[in-house]
Amino acid sequence: MNNLVVILLSVLLGSIGQVVLKIGANKLDSFTLSFETLVADLLRMARTPEIVIGLVLFGTSFLLWIKVLTKADLSYAYPLVSLGYINVVILSYFLFGESFTVMKVLGITLIISGVIVLNL
Would the pTM count as exceeding 0.90? Predict the structure, then answer.
């Protein structure tokens, strides 16, 4: 598989994993992560399907990223990770009703410009 395809797949799975984790976190309601409630909190997370699915997506993204690191220059691959921010902004708009502002559009434009410049 082409390095660029593996990089983009890793980034896509990581950003989707982040969104799925947010869905799961919303279901948890409160989460203190204190020493007294750590075991109970971990068990609640393990019983929340979206948390488990998000972790699987992150794990798959991680494995693909390791594959990328064995084949591609880090200075080429790593800037492409920032494309995940764009995925999260777009998915958050549609799934969570988060705002899509002029500043976010400007930020997305800067990210894309930066990736292009770094990979010329």
Answer: no
Residue closest to 110 by CA, chosen among 74, 86, 77: 86
- The amino acid that residue 103 corresponds to is M
3-state secondary structure the chain: CCHHHHHHHHHHHHHHHHHHHHHHHHHHCCCCCCCCCHHHHHHHHHCCHHHHHHHHHHHHHHHHHHHHHHHCCHHHHHHHHCHHHHHHHHHHHHHHCCCCCHHHHHHHHHHHHHHHHHCC
Round the CA-based radius of gyration of the chain to a whole number and report it.
Answer: 17
pLDDT tens for each residue of 10-31: 999 999 999 999 999 999 877 7
